[in-house]
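Re-running the complex after MR caught last week's input typo. The corrected sequence lines follow. Everything else is unchanged.
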Amino acid sequence: MQSRGLAWRLVAPALFFELLIHILPMLTGITMSFLSINQFNLANWLHAPFVGLANYRVGVSPASPIGSSFLSSIRVTFAFTALVVLCSVGIGLGAALLMNRPFPGRAVVRTIYLIPYAMPVFVTGILWRFMFLRNGAVNTLLVNVFHLADHPLFWLIGSNAFWSIVIVALWRLWPFCFLMFLAGLQAIPTDLYEAVSIDGGGAWAQFRQITLPLMRPVLSITTLVTTLWTFNDFTTPFTLLGSGLPASADLMAVHIYDNAFLHWQFGIGSAMSVMMLVIMLIFTILYNRALRVGSEVA
Amino acid sequence: MRRSLAAQIGFWVALVVLALFVLFPLYMMITSSLKPLSEVTLGTLYPHIVDWSPWVQMWQTIPLGRYFINSLIVSICATAISLLIAIFASYAFARLPFFGKNAFGTLILSTQMFPGVLFLLPLYLIFVVVQGWTGLPFRGTYLGLILTYLTFALPFSIWMLRGYLESVPRDLEESALVDGCTPVQSLFRVVLPVALPGVIAVGIFAFLNSWNEILFASVLTNAQTRTLSIGLQSYATQQQVFWNQMMAASILATLPIVIGFLFVQRYIVQGLTAGAVK
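Corrected-run output:
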């Protein structure tokens, strides 16, 4: 059949670009992780000295400043991801359940809720940096309006910076969960609920027997996608705090970026990238499995 | 089924609290763009004097118009190239068997999830080498930026479009094929017109992602090619930060994007939950 030749001609441009912008850089990145590249040999890095696994050893050795800060960055990234995803999924599911029944003004409320997700991320970061200034709106609310604090807090430096990136990431991400869950809920046929209520089941029984099992595919896909996005997040910390993050908010993507473009240690940065890639691959396998589970259910 | 009064009150309180969480920063963004610079960093919750001058001055403090145009050029080019390549590839994925289909599909799905920084470091060094060999500048040019934007726009477009093309009924094409169309003709005359809303949605999403991009742009642009996502930071100068102008420019950068998003939001749900929601 000629369709095979045709299929290959159709995918050839895509394959060419995939090789050029994904495969070639990934192979280059792995090569770079075995070289000692710094600002002095950057222009001529193809001839940089081969150092074997030294970059990896430096990267994960708790004794060296580079290694201990990378290990702490991994811990921060995991804590950040877990917190942001759990809260986003929780708030998103709660809001979707509330909004599942028609009420006056529902379309307006739904649109308002979606705005944070729709906004350009770099604007979100800049806007919250402004709000988190020492003389900013957040401190005005805390000190002058609600009297929850005696004096203005520093939000953009020190240990509070962690909570700042969590709040901003959460502000942006929960509407996405809400959007996905509302679509999932609206796809559940209402007669299923009627069947349970005829059998004498209350709201909790309906949730347990109908909502939760039918929502499982959407829940798992949303959780995995948001986990990946949050784990990879560069824009939120970068626009909120700039590069050279405070240790409490030192997310992995920015940490690797800083090693390369702030300290010009491309070899060490690449070794860290490869380690991050390994973590990502585990996520990807989970995601693929969840998709497969999803299509079986549907 | 009527709900009790307590449930009603709880329902509205929850809705309003969430709405305030969402709206308060937006309120601050709008009101701060109308404050004079002397007031904007005092943390006041409303402007004591309404001052429209930030909306005028924001064009002079930084080359805002230039940044807008740069963002438009790069985003439109990256979107157009991705769509064009993706239409052909996703049609092959949706309709035709070919050797290596599963492996290629997995590659596309996986690379779309990898963080950009994994590609940025090696691409930057590849650009250094290519420039050394050929003199072609990829750093600081539209070309280099557009190429790096394909790293996320292309796999995303192929993956989403594949879903839409699969949803087009096969009978439509078969009658076209019987009438003597080639598969490529039937793609353009039959399948794409039916899947047009999906194609437009994918295009808008690729555009939005490019518009939002900051990682590649922070390293690969210079004063001439700087995009809006990076350029907005220039309101923070050595001497002072023009927060009021920055907020005004932020509103300007936000409005078209939010409107575009609200038009296409239901398609992202379809694309991401394909198979999970029926």
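None of the earlier attempt is carried over here. The domain at 63-235 of chain B is CATH 1.10.3720.10 (MetI-like fold). Chain B touches chain A through 94 residues (CB under 8 Å).
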